[in-house]
Amino acid sequence: MKRPWIEPQQIREYTSSPKVEARTDSQLAYDIARAERYVIFHTHNRFEAEEYESKLPSDVTMAVILLAEAYAKQAITQKEGALSSETFDDYSYTVDTETDIADSLGLGMMLAEYVLPEDNGKVAMNLRKL
Fold first, then answer.
1. Among the residues of 15-105, which ranges form H helices?
2. Are 56 and 6 in contact (CB under 8 A)?
3. 4, 21, 73, 119: which has the fewest Cβ within 10 Å?
4. How far apart are alpha carbons 1 and 3 in whole angstroms?
């Protein structure tokens, strides 16, 4: 299937964040491209097979929308300079900023059906004496 797999409007329809809705089409296009690259990397599948010519599976589309929205929120947070920790008197908290976004969204189960064996580009030959 030809990329991009989804349109910026699909993210705007899904999100409940006004800040994500306010992002420009070109900003969302970058978020979508990042999400698609993650899906391709994770599944080792470019979804170019004949069965995907007309439409991607709904699980893959949902995964890309969820991940693109998360990338948009991450970009907004980084731009605003969100605090990673704060202390009030004898109370303090720290936000975990090292967690992989895709893992926290639970995309592994959505994409598990579409994972192909990893092709490392090497050929293994077993030789034996005749």
1. 18-21, 25-43, 58-80, 101-105
2. no
3. 119
4. 6
pLDDT, averaged across the chain: 87
Average pLDDT for 46-64: 93
Q: Does the pLDDT of residue 80 top 90, yes or no?
A: no
Q: Which amino acid is at 26?
A: S
Residue 67 vs residues 20, 102, 107, 118, 126: alpha-carbon distances, Å: 13, 7, 8, 22, 42
Residue range 8-114, CATH number: 1.10.3230
Query: How many helices, marked H, and strands, marked E, lie in the chain?
Result: 6, 2
How much of the chain is in helix, strand and coil states, percent to nearest 5?
55, 5, 40
Query: Among residues 91, 92, 127, which one has the least CA distance to residue 83?
Result: 92
Q: What tokens were used for 44?
A: 């080792």
